[in-house]
Design goal:
metal ion binding; alpha/beta; iron-sulfur cluster binding; globular; nucleotide-binding; ATP hydrolysis activity; binds adenosine-5'-triphosphate; GMP Synthetase, Chain A, domain 3; 9-stranded mixed β-sheet; Rossmann fold; ATP binding
Length: 347
Amino acid sequence: MNESDVRERLADVRDPDLGGDIVSLGLVNDVAVDEADGTVHVSLALGAPFSPNESAIADDVRDALADADLDVELSASIPEDLSADEQVLPGVQNVIAVASGKGGVGKSTVAVNLAAGLSALGARVGLFDADVYGPNVPRMVSAEQRPETDGETIVPPERFGVKLMSMDFLTGEDDPVIWRGPMVHKIITQLVEDVEWGELDYLVMDLPPGTGDTQLTILQTLPLTGAVIVTTPQDVALDDAVKGLRMFGKHDTNVLGIAENMAGFRCPDCGGFHEIFGSGGGKGLAADHDLPFLGGIPLDPAVRTGGDDGEPVVLEDGETADSFKVLVENVANNAGVVRRRGVSGGR
Ligand SMILES: Nc1ncnc2c1ncn2[C@@H]1O[C@H](COP(=O)(O)OP(=O)(O)OP(=O)(O)O)[C@@H](O)[C@H]1O
């Protein structure tokens, strides 16, 4: 079997999201058959490691070559326009921002569970807490686990397999309320240049709530794969979410979808499901703006206790954990769509 035979077989593998075959979409970077040692190496343009849909593409590629009597070696990389020197975060494949139009809707909770959930799938993950008004990451690590520095680089502490960094670690006692764009820019630059993230598949950024200077500076400084917008089903939170959407729209940032938090309450006493903040708002918002709906997370006391001291609830079993797992998978799948669409250029 030669390279063109391999490509012919790969032309039967469909991309479940982009709706075409991977060869026509330009998602096969390279094929190399080594008859002597009986291997075929296929490099695929896949950009969202451990996302279910990209894992399925890889499985289909293996299946398509299963009877070829060759060992199949797969690798995945999205060809970069910029050299490593020119890239802002060269070791980081995907930066995913978690945003909300208003405070208290559970944005940080979603960010933490997203990071822990991606790590549980097998990905290499970092979580950067840029929420200067309500930093959550410092609470996740003990005092002894604060980041270490040799004066030049900062080594982020790790929990649940996630590398953690917080604006709070870098700024100390400074009052964030007086922060303005230039200072945020300086700190973000420091984050980029001085923190030893190593190689990451995903860096989750927990943005401050709202649509102010800090959020804009981050959008302008970092190459985001896309943003997740968190809302509750209430109208007021939804109105604010629309403002968030506009901000991302103005900056040509991809929105990976809308997550609806506090979507109903399963009563532990009566077993009934109560829609305390209404229902369907997040789904409606997504539909109105032609955006993916990432899933709903119920109001559950375990979310708060998990956030305060224990493990993120996504790492446990049960209804709420499952709803977070669905959200994690949808975010990863949609990040993959953004990356692969970039390669296929709308082919
Ligand atoms: N689905 C949920 N069920 C129960 N409690 C929740 C849920 N989501 C969030 N909480 C709790 O609500 C509070 C606010 O959540 P969180 O800090 O994630 O919100 P936020 O949008 O990031 O707020 P901030 O404005 O501070 O950035 C926290 O105590 C959190 O544990």
